[in-house]
Design brief:
This protein is α/β, with parallel strands linked by helices. The chain has twelve helices and eleven strands. It folds into two domains: 166 residues, Bordetella uptake gene, domain 1 (D-Maltodextrin-Binding Protein, domain 2, 3-Layer(aba) Sandwich), CATH 3.40.190; 97 residues, D-Maltodextrin-Binding Protein, domain 2. This is Tripartite tricarboxylate transporter substrate binding protein.
């Protein structure tokens, strides 16, 4: 009996994290939250208060790891290939569903497939906002569209990269309105916003969170949003749908994913922790202050949302076609 007890004790240090997690000890160490973009973009803005709330709940570190590159493809793929033990998570944007479809459009093998990632919890799902510098000559969407039509190729806009969550909505508008604009891709939403503020480009489809402080400070002017209804934060800003572009509907959502092979008990523990984080008063204040709307969903509710949005975005990519 004593020998068997000693053997069992000596085996504990070599137990896998997943095995320990199934025993109810998850997490027993730091849990990394990967953001596939540089700091300052929509995913980063949401990931940081979520990570802080999880740290309070778990009493374990939850570092946010920015891993930018290839419009988010590199960071997304790194989590898809990570050990399925719950210790590496992804705070993804809606572009997660777009990038594999875009790769196939060009005849390339995708860096990851959607079935390699398991949806855990949705946190926000806001429409992007068309913003221009406050000193620009355009005060309405109609003026912006008229200028783009009058001078094809002359109006530039930044994005987080080809087929990113900031590029697709602008491509939708260009297709719907028959516009020819100059696309200037960056490695993330933060750099794309910085370029707009610095006057390097003239427009941006931004997540509401990163843009909100600059709108309030009078540095940026919102012209329209891509939602089915107006944003509560900016009720005076019209939707593209109500301005005559019914196809231009897009939501930049943020959600947490784990590698698909993560054991069910670990996924359940993660979902419970995300629900606790979503109820955290400090997280709620931080999300609201950032200009986003908390929209927590998990389980089948998030899975169904992800399936439906992925299918809609795949059709949008086909309409946009190849973007070099």
């Amino acid at each position: 009996m004593r020998r068997r007890s000693l053997l069992a004790a000596s085996a504990l240090p070599f137990a896998t994290p997943a095995a320990l997690a199934q025993g109810g000890d998850f997490p027993s160490r730091a849990v990394s939250m990967v953001v596939a973009f540089p700091p300052g973009g929509q995913a980063d803005v949401v990931a940081r208060p979520v990570a802080a709330a999880l740290e309070r709940h778990w009493r374990q570190p939850v570092p946010v790891v920015n891993r930018p590159g290839a419009s988010g493809e590199l960071g997304n793929a790194s989590v898809a290939r990570a050990a399925p033990d719950g210790y590496t998570l992804l705070m993804a944007l809606s572009s997660l569903a777009v990038l594999p479809e875009a790769a196939r459009l060009f005849g390339r093998a995708p860096a990851y497939e959607l079935d390699q990632l398991a949806p855990i919890a949705l946190f926000t799902a806001d429409p992007t906002v068309l913003v221009v510098p406050a000193l620009s000559p355009w005060r309405t969407l109609e003026e912006f569209v008229a200028a783009a039509k009058a001078r094809p190729g002359s109006i530039s806009y930044s994005s987080a990269g080809n087929y990113s969550a900031l590029h697709v909505p602008m491509a939708m508008l260009a297709t719907a309105a028959g516009l020819d604009m100059l696309h200037v891709p960056f490695q993330g939403g933060g750099p794309a916003l910085t370029a707009l503020l610095a006057g390097q480009v003239q427009a941006l489809s931004s997540g509401p969170g990163p843009a909100a402080p600059h709108i309030r400070d009078g540095k940026l002017r919102p012209l329209a949003c891509w939602g089915a209804k107006r944003l509560p934060e900016f009720p005076e800003v019209p939707t593209l749908i109500e301005r005559g572009f019914p196809e231009a509907e897009y939501y930049i959502w943020t959600g947490v994913f784990a590698p698909a092979a993560t054991p069910a008990p670990v996924r359940e523990a993660l979902r419970a922790a995300m629900a606790a984080a979503a109820a955290d008063p400090e997280l709620r204040r931080a999300v609201s202050a950032s200009g986003n709307t908390l929209d927590h969903r998990d389980g089948e509710a998030f899975a169904a949302f992800f399936r439906n949005d992925s299918a809609r975005l795949a059709r949008a990519v086909q309409r946009i076609g190849k973007v070099e």
